[in-house]
Amino acid sequence: MTPLDDLLTADAKTARSSVIREILALVDLDDVLSLAGGMPDPATFPVDDLARVADAAIRSPSGEPLQYGRTEGMTPLRAVIADDAASRRSRACTPDEVLVTTGSQQALDLVGRAFLDPGDEVAIDDPGYLGAIQALGARHPRWLPIRVDDDGLDTEALEAALTRGGRPKLVYTVTDFQNPTGAVLHPERRRHLAALADHWGFLVVEDDPYGRIRFDEPVHPPVSTWTDRAISLGTTSKTIAPGLRVGWMVAPPPLITVLARLKQATDLHTSTLSQQLVLDLLAVPGWMTERSKVLGAFYRERAGELRAALAEALPGATIAEPRGGLFLWADIPGVDTTALLPRAVDAGVAFVPGSAFRTGDDPTSTFRATYATLGPTELREAARRLGSVV
Q1: Cβ distance 284 to 266 under 8 Å?
Q2: How far apart are CA 35 and CA 382, in angstroms?
Q3: pLDDT, tens digit (0-9, with 9 covering 90-100), for 179-229
Q4: What is the pLDDT of residue 338?
Q5: Which end of the chain has fewer CB within 10 Å, C or N?
Q6: Integer Cα distance of 123 and 115 in angstroms
């Protein structure tokens, strides 16, 4: 009889385990304080508001929130997302430019399936979001890592790579409070990236899951302000609740049509009930604006606690000052953080080594820590445990 493993496709046999999945497994260990996964604190979930709109949605006379829906998403929700995109980029946006997805991770998968054949080149933040590396990596691209500094993706380095012969189909970047470094793409670099896309013909995939969680950073226009060669990704996972799994992409209508066809073969449509809950919250004037202020204040305090605790526990480390989002980036010179992680877990603390955010396998002394999940006392204890291991 043929072994079951022999029935697997080549892709299934070579698929790498999700680092995110392994991180979430660490969160479930009772004796481990996790600085690893970027899981929002449940205390921030708008439970009362969700309970109110959920009751109304479930009891809706039309039954629409419990029924099958359009692959593209509920039209009223797409209209709300389009209006927000229009205000951000100061130019028109219609619901036909919006595709609602089952979290922004599905959006990344759809982008890879729509635009990448094996061997196509992809330029990506270095270090970059590990979920994007996994989703786009499933298409077997050639990676073109472009360094990230305090001002985000180095577009001068990207231009130099293009001049040397680099020909990416896609350029992927997290624009606001980049995962993992927390960097913000400078406004001039956004303009430059848009100009490069128009000149060289590639597509920009700008991901913005954290832009609503701001400390003192001003709001900057998206790259799509200056070019039509951009797909903008968004999600409610960090601002409302990740369990709803409601994300979206904004792109020119012809691209949305193709992406919707691919999505239809995957899940038919994103949960209509989740979409209805999100719609009913976002449709309230000022609801998200006020929520952003609350989230910013909540996580600013946590960020300060963790940064101060790590500075005390790791006196030789360089620790970036968070400007928003959920993550802090640090460097411990001379320490291989990949090798450090198992010992840290044994000591009761977890983090994500910097190697997880790179397309290669080189060791690194950097790591990412989140201040989103633990309370102030736990954050200080986690830093103390990490310091004792180092």
Answers
A1: no
A2: 8
A3: 999 999 999 999 999 999 999 999 999 999 999 999 999 999 999 999 999
A4: 92
A5: N
A6: 13
E strand map for the chain: 33-34, 98-101, 121-126, 142-149, 152-153, 168-174, 203-207, 230-235, 247-250, 318-319, 327-331, 349-350, 352-353, 366-370
User: In the block, which residue shows the tokens 């979206």?
Assistant: 248
Query: pTM score > 0.90 for this model?
Result: yes
For residue 101, the SS3 value is: strand
Task: Return d(Cα 368, Cα 127) in angstroms, integer.
Answer: 11
Instruction: Indicate the SS3 state at residue 390.
Output: coil
Predicted local distance difference test score (pLDDT) of residue 25: 65
- Residue for token digits 């980029």? 89
How far CA 166 is from CA of 73, 145, 202, in Å, comes to 36, 11, 11
What is the per-residue pLDDT across 81-107, written as a single tens digit (0 to 9) for each?
Answer: 999 999 999 999 999 999 999 999 999
Contacts of 77 (CB under 8 A, 6+ apart): 100, 275, 278, 279, 282
Selection from 30, 36, 33 nearest residue 351 by Cα? 36
Q: What is the amino acid identity at position 377?
A: T
Cα–Cα distance measured from residue 56 to residue 54, given in angstroms and rounded to the nearest whole number: 5
Q: How many CB atoms lie within 10 A of CB 370?
A: 27
Spatial separation of the C-alpha atoms in residues 66 and 75, rounded to whole Å: 16
**Cα separation, 383 vs 342, whole angstroms:** 16
